[in-house]
Amino acid sequence: MGRVSFWSKDIPVAGEPREVLQEPITIGEETFRFTGTTIGNPHCVIPVQDLAPELAKKYGPLLEVHPLFPNRTNVQFLKVLDRNNIRIKIWERGAGYTLASGSSSSAAAAIARKLGMCDSQITVHMPGGQISISIDEDFGIAMVGPVTQIGDGRLADEMFQCGI
């Protein structure tokens, strides 16, 4: 998957250059602590004790467009189950509530590791399935998971003609 970065200029997150770790963010009357990261796209990960789809559905669209995130952001609510297992609920930037995501799994696992909540081998549990994440000492991410065909299609020959 690549290497994650926690640096504000890479993600990006507004404000002075810094690693974005456990910072407060307020949405309405609710204040969360988030950690930001990027693995080619921005992520705002919020560890919680009580995890429900309603969290992502209620706060995800508001966090996605929060002024701290000039390019908008993906949002994951994270519950650590043990040193090698986490569960996430996902709000995907521009798409909404999402059942599974490789980059969201990578971001959430990397943050669980960075914050010392998990070891380097993590299974990410999502409503849409599970993915295994390995994190090296430089926060390089390797991902292994099932592949399922969900469709079959045909491209028309006209698509390859000049002038289209």
| CATH class placement | Alpha Beta
How many discrete structural domains?
Answer: 1
What profile does the largest beta sheet have?
10 strands, mixed
**CATH architectural arrangement:** Roll
The span between the termini is 34 Å
**CATH H level, superfamily name:** Diaminopimelate Epimerase, Chain A, domain 1
* Low-pLDDT residue intervals, each spanning 5 or more residues: none
**Rounded radius of gyration (Å):** 17 Å
**Which overall shape is indicated by the principal axes computed on the Cα atoms?**
globular
The amount of helix comes to 10-25%
Per the CATH scheme, the topology name is Diaminopimelate Epimerase, Chain A, domain 1
Beta strands, count? 10
Strand content: 35-45%
What count of helical segments does DSSP give? 2
Average pLDDT across residues?
A: 95
The secondary structure category is: alpha+beta
Question: What does this protein look like?
Answer:
The protein is α+β, with helices and mostly antiparallel strands and 164 residues long. It has one domain (2-160): Roll (Diaminopimelate Epimerase, Chain A, domain 1), CATH 3.10.310. It has 2 helices and 10 strands. It has helices at 53-64, 102-114, and strands at 2-3, 23-27, 30-38, 42-47, 74-82, 85-92, 96-98, 121-126, 129-135, 140-144. Strands 1, 2, 3, 4, 5, 6, 7, 8, 9 and 10 form a 10-stranded mixed beta sheet that branches. Helix 1 links the parallel strand 4 and strand 5 (74-82). The two termini are 34 Å apart. The mean pLDDT is 95.
